[in-house]
Specification:
By secondary structure, the protein is an alpha/beta fold. It has 15 helices and ten strands. The protein has an eight-stranded parallel beta barrel with strand order 3-4-5-6-7-8-9-10, surrounded by four helices. Helix 1 links the parallel strand 3 and strand 4.
């Protein structure tokens, strides 16, 4: 019996049995029952100046291999979004290069890629509404030129300058009219970015959702879907039930995705959500196996596979939630997808050892460790490096 060491918040250590890897297989045909995107992170060069405030220096081989791995499991890739440290270390130049390279990989692999469109290349903190529109459109056109699907992200610039829901309606209408393909609208909650307080004109999701739904209604044929990241299943279901036919709900709820994706299939209300999740970058083989179970008409197996991962995801996305990226990169390193536990901007230091230990424990329990012996070796080495030997 092989054991793996855990570290509690009080410094006490304990051992638990290391589980075998999940017996999951890559799909031999495209996934059918759900559309699923893994929101992928970026891997910096190990020798780069990965300290706060420094430009991102990306290890492109490891970063793009991570995306190829997602495609091999039948998932799409959502790129250049908050999981890729957008607005938290991924600068404008690196963002553009990431979008171009990721779109090229998608073409090579025959995979589906969507990427974030924002206004964050503008250095000024406060700009006018016409400037917000111009900034959005500039990134939108670049994204379309690369052949990637656009995800219209929530803009900090817009949140600062908008005085009412009317301003949101104006900006989104102007941007959407410039889109040559339907876009996904991203509603990012304050748990992920506190600077987006009051987005869509209200701090109450019920009022704000009215603005979102009006944007969709007033721009027919321009919106392919909505990604909701409020960590609130009630709000997602309420909006999902009001979406026009042909507009998908992509859950960004890393706390409640099992029931939201399962939907009526697993007795969790009418319809279902598709997926655009940072969590799916952390548990790609497990997520693929669960959707394969739905494709096979086996909702019980879906719950058996994916259900245990939700506690893991809640740990990764625990408050302060915007540091969840540390957990995604940590699991990527444990699973052998990058050579070191390094992150752009030094964010690998954003979580404590006991927090990471709980991730190890829950990943082991939910069969999310892809090569358990490698994960054990790397984790024990990290503990030893930090003086934890007993």
């Amino acid at each position: 019996m092989t054991m793996i060491r855990l570290l509690a918040a009080d410094g006490a250590t304990s051992d638990t049995e290391l589980n075998d890897a999940g017996a999951y297989t890559r799909p031999t045909a495209p996934l059918q029952s759900r559309v699923a995107y893994a929101a992928a992170h970026v891997v910096p060069k190990v020798h780069a100046d990965n300290t706060p405030g420094r430009p991102a220096d990306i290890d492109w081989d490891a970063t793009l291999a991570f995306r190829r791995n997602a495609y091999s499991w039948g998932l799409g890739v959502a790129d250049a979004m908050d999981t890729a440290q957008r607005n938290m270390g991924l600068d404008a130049a690196a963002t553009r290069e990431l979008i171009a390279r990721s779109a090229e990989v998608a073409r090579e692999e025959g995979g589906s890629v969507v990427v974030g469109v924002n206004t964050d290349h503008v250095d000024e903190e406060r700009i006018s509404l016409p400037q917000v529109i111009d900034a959005y459109v500039e990134q939108l056109h670049f994204t379309e030129e690369q052949g990637a699907g656009p995800v219209l992200m929530a803009s900090r610039h817009l949140a600062r300058v908008a005085e009412s829901r009317t301003d949101y309606l104006r900006v989104y209408a102007a941007v959407l009219q410039q889109a040559t393909t339907p876009v996904v609208l991203h509603w990012l909650g304050t748990a992920f970015d506190p600077q987006l307080e009051g987005y869509f004109g209200s701090g109450d999701w019920r009022d704000a959702s009215g603005t979102l739904l009006r944007i969709i209604a007033e721009n027919p044929g321009k919106v392919a879907g909505v990604k909701m990241s409020l960590l609130n299943a009630e709000s997602e279901i309420a909006v999902r039930e009001q979406l026009p036919e042909g507009v998908r709900m992509f859950t960004g709820d890393d706390f409640n995705y099992v029931g939201l994706i399962g939907g009526d299939t697993v007795g969790q209300g009418g319809s279902h959500s598709d997926a655009l999740l940072g969590a799916f970058a952390a548990i790609t083989p497990v997520a693929s196996a669960a959707i394969q179970a739905l494709d096979a008409g086996d909702p019980a197996r879906y719950l058996e596979i994916l259900g245990p991962t939700e506690e893991l995801s809640r740990q990764v996305f625990a408050a302060p939630t915007f540091y969840y990226k540390t957990g995604v990169a940590f699991l990527s390193w444990l699973n052998g997808h990058q050579p070191a536990f390094q992150m752009v901007g030094g964010l690998h230091s954003a979580r404590s050892l006991p927090h990471l230990s709980r991730i190890v424990e829950l990943a082991n329990a939910s069969l999310a460790l892809e090569v358990p012996e490698l994960a054990r070796e790397r984790w024990h080495g990290m503990l030893a490096l930090n003086g934890v030997t007993a």
